[in-house]
Amino acid sequence: MTIKEAQQLVDIWINKYGVRYFSEMTNLAILMEETGELARIMSRKYGDQSFKENESPDSLPDEMADVLWVLLCLANQTGVDLEKALIDNLDKKTKRDGSRHKNNTKLK
């Protein structure tokens, strides 16, 4: 699935089941909430915290998908083609950081 196809699938789902998109500000708040949930799982699975009884490391893919879902919603609402944006962003990073990380002694 391409990113463009993912944006289209989210839009179809929203219009079929979700009635309408939440406002952009509400979706931004939801994105922060979902990012926090992802951070909680990451800190327990890869960091120093332990899981609570009702938490599962198996929820990592679902939490990542939740973050992606809301980001796709925001892109649809604001007219951003995320596929093009990612390609442009990779080009920017390549031009800016093409040798920077290779020359960083902290990464060796």
From TrEMBL:
InterPro entries: MazG-like_dom, MazG-related_YpjD, YpjD/YvdC. Transmembrane segments: none annotated. Residues 23-98 form the NTP pyrophosphohydrolase MazG-like domain. This is NTP pyrophosphatase, house-cleaning of non-canonical NTPs. It comes from Alkalitalea saponilacus.
